[in-house]
Structure formats: C-alpha cells, structure tokens
Amino acid sequence: MGLLIYIDGKFVDEKQAKISVFDHGLLYGDGIFEGLRTYSGKVFRLGQHIQRLYKSAKAIFLEIPISKDKMAEVIKATVRKNKLKDSYIRVVVTRGKGDLGLDPRKCSNPTVIVIASKIELYPEEYYRNGLSVVTIATRRNLIESLNPAVKSLNYLNNILGKIEATNAGAMEGLFLNNEGYVTECSGENIFIISGNFLCTPPISAGALDGITRDAVIQIGKTVGLDVSEKLLTRYDLYNADECFLTGTAAEIVPVTLIDGRTIGNGKSGILTCKIRKEFHNLVLKEGTPI
Ligand code: PMP
Q: Is 111 within 8 Å of 3 (Cβ atoms)?
C-alpha cells in the first residue's frame, strides 16, 4: 500500500490517484495550490493556509467545490489516514476536466487533491552555513499580469528562476521585479537584518504573502527587532548583516552568499539562529490537532 490520496471526494491508494489528460491543471496550469506542514501531529496555521487558498481561487475565478470547513477536515483526515505526525501537505485545486480549448466554462468540476507525505528540507549543513543565492535575469511576473500573490499551478516563472540559479551554481535564485526591486526567491520569501532592523519586501513588490513570512514578522517584533516591509535593492542585501529565506518547506534558512558577496561572517547569523529557534517553539506551541 502506498500513500492514501484524497482526490475528488474519495481516499484512494496513490496508484489509483489519477487525473484526466483533459484536466486544465495539466493542459494549462489552470489551478492553485497550497503547501502546509504538520509538526508533532498539529497543522501549522491551517486557517491561514485555507484562507490563502480561497483567495487564490477567487483571484482566478475558480469556485472550490467544498467549504473552507470541509477543506480543513479533508486536510486533517489525509494526515490521519496516512498515520503521519510530521508531514508536508499539498493541496491542489485544478479547473478540472475540459476540452482542448482553454475556455474554463467547459470545465464543470474542479479537481480537488490532497497529498500528505514526508517532509523534504535542505540538508542540515545549509542551516549552519547558509545558501548561496544569485540574482536571476528572468524578472518576477508583473502584479498586473499573473500576480505572484496567487499561488497558481503555473509556476513556470519560478521554475525558470530555479533553473537559472542552478545553472549559475547557486542554491536559490533571487527575483527582482520589473523596476529592479527585490521580490523573493523562486520558492521562499526573503528577509534581511541590518543592526536592529528586520526588513522584507512588501507583497506589492511582487511576492507571495508567505505564511512563514508572517510568522517571522510576528517573531521579529516579539524579540525586539524593528520590523518593516519596504522596497529593497540588491545593494541593501549585499550590505546586510544577515539574510535568510522563509517558506513552509524550508522554514528559515540563512543566506551567506549573494551574487558572490559574503553576507556577515559567512555563517548563519546570531539573530537568524534566534528567529529560527523561536519559530521552532512557535510551530510546536501553535497548530490545529489532526
Ligand atoms: N514564495 C514562493 C514563490 C513560494 O512558492 C513559497 C512557498 N513555497 C513562499 C514564498 C513561502 O510561502 P509560505 O511561507 O507560505 O510557505
């Protein structure tokens, strides 16, 4: 028996969990998704993830066929049925099966999929020594086109960024927006620390409204840092004392090299370590039991 997957109202073995080749999620990347985590049997910020999923759906005129409460139940049940305590959960809602044209009116039933599996993190050494990041030539999607706040199934912009970073020998790619301001990395939000200031670009610069980002803003204030969301340039990043990325899968991961400039002393900074520790306390303290 493999994993039990929730698909179209039923739990089935992963071998039977299939979608149509006419599903517009596949044909056009027409759909949305969420990535969540459970820690010791509790879902971190379940309500916030569900909120973001339904906001993404609204932005692309997609009617999720189940209520938010039902979605929460399905997510918890998927983790329970797979007997997982620490897991990574993927929720996918596609436009559903249509024809080969792109008209979404031909897709009557959105496909809802929930997968709960083991987590994949960066190897431990990256949490000590940090990641190398390079600025990539591909710009972040314009907010006036496909707004990066929508967690859409069309991740080609992000994937191109990841490929460019890999080709340049770096672990992550830094996206600038069309005006040259820092937005985020291909799969994580970005923060810098300079003195007592903790800064991250505003969502309106072209970033996902990250749930880990939100938790870190809260933690930053609790530990007495002066937190702000402001436009950042690469110059601000190069001259920061510390830099780190945030995301559900990666959690809080330090950055110690940006475009060949060493950040701080080339190891995870003191405040980054402190915020990471507080984050681990928070995920164990908070959370919705499965
Ligand atoms: N930005 C992008 C582009 C992402 O895909 C993600 C999620 N992997 C994040 C930021 C981080 O968001 P969250 O903390 O909600 O996982």
A: no
